[in-house]
Amino acid sequence: MRKLQEIFRTSFPVRVSVWVVLTAAFIFLAAQLYVSYVSRKSVWNEAVQRATQVLENSELRLTRILDDVEQTADNVEWLVYRHLDSPDTLFEYTRNALQGNSDLIGCAIAFEPYYFENQEYFSAYSSNTDGVIETSQEGDEDYQYFYLDWYLMPKLLNQPCWTEPYCDWDYDDDYSLQTDMLISYSKPLTDANGDFIGVVSLDVSPKWLSEQLSSVKPYPHSGCVLISRGGTFLIHPDSEKLFYETIFTRNLKGDDPSLEYVGHDMQDLKEGFQEVRVNGEDTYAFYKPLKDTGWSLALICLEKDIFGAFDRLRIIASLLALLGLLLLFFSNFKVIERTMIPLKELAIEAGNIAEGDFDRPIPQTDREDEIGTLSRSFAHMQSSLVSYIDELKVTTAKKERIEGELRIAHDIQMGMVPNVFPPFPERKELDLHALMAPAREVGGDLYDYLLLGDKLFFCIGDVSGKGIPASMFMATTRSMFRVMGKQGIPPSEIARRLNDTLSENNESMMFVTSFIGVLDLVTGRLEYCNCGHNPPALMSGGSAPVFLDCVPNTPLGVLNGCEYEGQVLDDLRGCMLFLYTDGLNEAENVDHVEFGMDRISSVLSGLSTANALTVVESMQRAVASHVGKAEPSDDLTMLCLRLKAKA
C-alpha cells in the first residue's frame, strides 16, 4: 500500500492519469446507477406481468378440473333422484362417475341411517386405484361415515362444499388409515320436503392436483402453491410438505415473519404480492384467491431467478467499463510520459550533480513553459551549489559533536537504571530481570525497583515522545519514584504525588504512562496502580497468561490534582508478572504489522516455568525476529518478576 502511495506521490503521469480515470469512473458510475434503476424497474414490471399471467393460467386450469368434478356431482345427483327406489343401481352410478372422469379417485353416494328399511348404513362407494375401479358398500360400526367431514359439512351447511384434506380409512385392509390424503367435493341430497337424506361425494387426490401444476414454471426455481381455508398446503412443489405443513409452519421455525402476513392475506382471499425470505433466500410470493372454493393460489419466485440475467449483464457491463478505464489510464500515462521526457533528462543531470559532478552541464532548452523555467532554475542551482558545500562541512562537524554528546547521554541514562543480574542473593524467593533498549541514543522508557525490608517497590514507564526531552523527563520521574518509594507509601499515593510534581510548570505538556507496584515478598500481596499503561501479563503455574485487570487512571503529568485508584492482587506467590512498554506490542516489521498482544501471549505460554532472565531474553528474541530489518519504532522496556510458591 505504501509503495502505491509513493508511486502516486512521485509520478506526475500516474497522478494525472489516475485523476482522469477517477473522473471517467464517476461519470460511468452515475450513468450505470441510473440505467440500473430503470432496467431493474422494467425487469420487475415484466416479472409481475409474467407472474400474473401464470397465476391466471393456473387458476383456469384448476377451475376447469374443479368444475368437471362439480359437474360430475350434478350428474350423479340427477341420477340418484331418478332411482331412489332402486338403491342397488347406485353402485353402478359411482363406477360410471369414475369411468367418465379420470381426475377422480373415489365416488360415494351415502344416506342417512335407516333411510332404506332395515339398513342403518348405506353408502355406495367406488375407488379408482391405478385404473382399477372397485365398488363396495362402505359403512358399519367401525366406519360410521355420517360422522365424517365429507358427510357432515354439506349436511350442516345445506350446500355443496369442498373439504379440508383428510385421511380416509381403507376398509379392504381391516379399516387401516390410508397414507394418501383426499379432498372431497360433497353435495347434499334432499327429499321432496327439502329434508336432508344423504350426500354425493367425489374424491380428488391433492398430489395429483399438485402434479398438474408442477410444470407451470415462469422461472427455473419457481412453483405454485395452493392452500386451503386453514392454511394447509393442497399443492406444493415439495410433496413432503403436502397436508403435514401449513403456510405458517415456516414462521414457527424462525423464518421471515412476512411469510405469516402472506398466509393471512391468502386466508382472507386477498390478491397481491409480497417479498418474503424462505430457506435463507429472498423470494417473491404472488397470490390470488380461487373462486368459490375458499382456497388461495400462490406463485413463488426466487429473486435470483427474476433478476439473475439482469445482475449478470450488470457485472459484464462493469467488467467492460473497468477494462475501458484501464485502457484509458495506460493511454493517458503514455501520452503524459512522452511529454515529460525533457524533465527526465533534467532529473538525470541533477542526479549527477548530486553525486558531486558539479561541472556537468544542464541541458539547455528554448521552451517557455514550466519545463523551460525548471531547466533554468537548475542551472542557477548548479552555480550556487559550491558555496553550500562549505556550509555543509561546518554543519557536519557540528552534527558529529552532537552525536558524541548523545552517546555519552546514552551511557549516563543506561547507568541510571538498576542492573538486576545476577539476582538478589539474600532474597531467594524473588527472581527479577529487566531490559531497556532505546529506539535512539537516548529514550523515554524507564524501569526501577527498590527493596525495603520485605517489600519490593517497582515501576515501569513510557514517556511521551523520544529523544533527549523524553530522557530528561524519564530521569526526573525515576528520581522522584525512588524518593517517594523510600517513604513506604502505597502505589496510588506515589502516583498522585508524582503526577502533582510532574504537572507543575509542564509547559511542554509531556506525560508518562506508568505501572507502579508494591509486592510483599512474604505474603505475596501485590498493591498496584496503573497510570494509563499497558496491563501486565500474569501467569500462574502452567496456566495460560492473562492480562491484569487495571483501572484506566490518567497518565502522570497530564493534569494537576488527579486522584489515582489503586488495586490489589491477594497472592502473587507461585506466579510470574511480566511488565512491558508499548515498544513491545507496537513493534512493527517492514510490512507495518505490529507484534501485538496475541504474540505476547503466545511467547509467554511457552515460558510458564522459565526464570525471569529466560522470559525477558526469549521475548527479546521473538520481537527481534518479528521486526527483522525494520527500524525500531519506539523504545522497548521489559521487566519480569517471579515470586516462589509458598512452602
Q: What descriptive keywords fit this protein?
A:
Beta-Lactamase, five-stranded antiparallel beta sheet, 647 residues, alpha+beta, Phosphatase 2c, domain 1
Shape: elongated
Q: What portion of residues belong to β-strands?
A: 15-25%
Helix percent band: 40-55%
Radius of gyration: 46 Å
How far apart are the first and last residues' alpha carbons, in Å?
A: 57 Å
Output mean pLDDT: 80
Largest sheet: 7 strands, antiparallel
CATH topology category name of the domain at 426-643: Phosphatase 2c, domain 1
Which assembly state applies to the chains in this document? single chain
Query: What structural class results from the helix and strand content?
Result: alpha+beta
In CATH terms, the superfamily of the domain at 426-643 is PPM-type phosphatase domain
CATH class of the domain at 426-643: Alpha Beta
| Helix segment tally | 15
Instruction: Please count the beta strands (DSSP E, at least 2 residues each).
Output: 22
Q: Tell me which CATH architecture of the domain at 426-643 applies here.
A: 4-Layer Sandwich
Could you name the ranges where pLDDT drops below 50 across 5 or more consecutive residues? 408-416, 420-425
